[in-house]
Specification:
The complex is a heterodimer. Helices cover 0% and strands 44% of the residues of chain A. Chain A is mainly β. The radius of gyration of chain A is 13 Å and the shape is globular. In chain B, a hairpin with an 8-residue loop joins strand 9 (92-99) and strand 10. In chain B, strands 2, 4, 5, 6, 9, 10 and 11 form a seven-stranded mixed β-sheet that branches. A four-stranded antiparallel β-sheet of chain B has the order 1-3-8-7, with no helix packed on it. Classes of the chains: A mainly beta, B mainly beta. Chain A binds chain B through residues 32, 34, 36, 43-46, 49-50, 55, 87, 89, 91-102, and chain B through 35, 37, 44-48, 50, 59-63, 95, 99, 102-112.
């Protein structure tokens, strides 16, 4: 079973700043890595899939990178609506398709 | 527009049974896998199980095997998650999600169904 970890648990940032979130897999997931955003009181939504492809409607300030076991989500200039919890998910090996524990942007 | 609309919040007692639903619209229901994801209060996301509507091919997270059952009714484009005997530890938000294959990301999420189990 692949275990996903994320760091930091909480990231304190200010409007307009750059945020860098990390995700690590216990073994290679190739390029089968997605990121989701969950705003308070809402369902998660897909941000990034295939490590770096933005989902429909996702602003260009969101970008993903990495390979194998180490991945990064970068938000180039934080907007107020970006303060949320971000989860990574591997879909390379099942079951289960594990999610990371999340990083909260404060 | 692709939509997954889930049934409303439920309050149940331990030992009771429950079946929640996820109604799909805006796409060809048989063409996509439907998975269920649990989120306990204040916690992260847990992948529970997945089903292919064409033939009801199903795979469970071993952590949930035997505890829940997922199913579909192709005639009404609806997926289900059910419990035969609820526990307090089943209290959580449950999301249905759509994926194009069994090994993929989820591009559409239901709004969630909150299940509360309390005596």
């Amino acid at each position: 079973e692949i275990v996903m970890t994320q760091s930091p648990v909480t990231l304190s940032v200010s409007l307009g700043e750059r945020a860098t979130l990390s995700c690590r897999a216990s073994q290679s997931v190739n390029s089968n890595l997605a990121w989701y955003q969950q705003r308070p009181g809402q369902a998660p939504r897909l941000l990034i899939y295939g490590v770096s492809t933005r989902a429909t409607g996702v602003p260009a300030r969101f970008s993903g990178s990495g390979s194998g076991t180490e991945f990064t989500l970068t938000i180039s200039s934080l907007q107020s609506e970006d303060f949320a919890v971000y989860y990574c998910q591997q879909y390379n090996q099942w079951p289960p398709f594990a999610f990371g524990p999340g990083t909260r942007l404060d | 527009e692709v939509q997954l609309v889930q049934s409303g919040a439920e309050v149940k007692k331990p030992g009771e049974s429950l079946k929640i639903s996820c109604k799909a619209s805006g796409y060809s229901f048989p063409s996509y896998w439907i998975a269920w994801v649990r989120q306990e209060p204040g916690k992260g996301l847990e992948w529970m199980a997945i089903i292919y509507p064409v033939d009801s091919d199903t795979t469970y997270n071993p952590s949930f095997q035997g505890l829940v059952t997922i199913s579909v009714d192709k005639s009404i484009d609806t997926a289900y998650l059910q419990w035969s005997s609820l526990k307090a530890s089943d209290t959580a938000m449950y999301y249905c999600v759509r994926g194009s294959t069994i090994t993929t990301f989820y591009d559409s999420w239901g709004q969630g169904t909150l299940v509360t189990v309390s005596s």
